[in-house]
Amino acid sequence: MKVPASNILNIYFSNSQQKIFFIVLAILLFPPWIKAQDNNKAVYKIKKVVIDPGHGGKDPGTLGQHSREKNIVLSIALKLGKYIEDNVKDVQIIYTRKKDVFVELHERGNIANTNHADLFISIHCNSSLNKNIYGAETYVMGLNVGERNMEVARKENAVITLENDYSQHYEGFDPNSPESYIVFNLMQNTYLEQSLEFATLVQKQFKDRAGRHDHGVRQAGFLVLWKTSMPSVLIETGYLSNPKEEKFLMSDNGQALIASAIYRAFKNYKTMIESQSNFTVARADTNQSFFSVQVLTSRKKIPLDDKTFKKYKPVFEFKEGSRYKYTVGRSSSYEEIKNLRKQLLTDFPDAFLVAVKDYRIISLQEALKKMK
Ligand SMILES: [Zn+2]
Predict the structure, then answer these.
(1) Which residue in 7, 79, 182, 239 is deepest, having the highest Cβ count within 10 Å?
(2) Does residue 264 belong to any structural domain of this protein?
(3) How many angstroms does the Cα of residue 56 sit away from the middle of ligand 1?
(4) Residues with Cβ within 5 Å of ion ligand 1?
């Protein structure tokens, strides 16, 4: 004999028991953590790339025997942009200049920031008093390591003396004073790891596919990278002071080789970032923005309930490149998260504030700007 389900409920459960039954059923059918699992699949996409050909207009950049840096880097930049536009349809290219015009260094970073770019690529040519030196190197923002890096940064930064009000735009920075470079030591470089990943891929392509002499990935204090709030690199494509390399960089074929090497590095970087950047959430609604405190970076995955994190909750995990980043706490109040950081400092002396938006960590600077 069949009894309708509602009758069974009436027989065996009181009214309040019935309510509980349905709540339990609802939880079984629509578990509240299912949204968190969906969030795990949310993938960060690279949508906008800013390409920055160095110098321009009244600033020729470094001078070769027969060439000017500003012209060579513009050709390479336009080729690179075209390769990406033609082959990676979901990426938009923004140039800081497409013509022979002067653009101030701080304005180049502004263009990238206001467009919310995902990657900033500054393209340059090098020079040396020693004409025998040739080869390519890619820089990420950081303290000048070694005299040669300092010299390259000094040369590329010197252009600000051609700008109006430069002391105002760069907080009193003097490109020729080594002491000025200390300022870069004070900033927390949120995007250092991704910048390094991309820089490494560029150098690999230069070496393996474009046959360039590899000077490796380096760090120095470049003003143009100072305030960009996304992974950023400055590429020195070769030495105009070396006659053979100058000839190569002036040739259409040479420029195409350099541009396609950067293009391939970009494609690899995009694939890597998009396949690896997932986001593990401790709560369901993490697609909203919030402040948190970054406590650890690790090459190995750490369970969110690991004793490393002590008693602190909630813990968030972000995979960026080959690294895992862990943050503690969640608040929309800046004051509250600042207090939390103070408490965390005893267990995590390097803890610093970050903001989370669209499933990824963004710099505080960027977040505060968006809130204004
Ligand atoms: Zn330059």
Answers:
(1) 239
(2) yes
(3) 10
(4) 54, 61, 124, 156
> Are residues 150 and 292 both part of a single domain?
no
Same domain membership, residue 336 and residue 310? yes
Instruction: Quote the ligand 1 centre to 58 CA distance (angstroms).
Output: 13
Q: 227-254 pLDDT, tens per residue?
A: 888 899 999 999 999 999 999 999 999 9
**What domain range is 244 assigned to?**
48-275
Separation of 257 CA from ligand 1 center, angstroms? 19
- At residue 9, the pLDDT reads 39
Give me ligand 1 centre to Cα 4, in Å: 80
Ligand 1 geometric centre to CA of 104 (Å): 13
ipTM above 0.95, yes or no: yes
Q: What is the full DSSP assignment across 142-206?
A: SS--SHHHHHHHHHHHGGGGGSTTHHHHTTT--TT-GGGGGGGGSS--TTHHHHHHHHHHHHHHH
Number of domains in the chain: 2
Residue 358: how many other CB atoms lie within 10 Å: 13
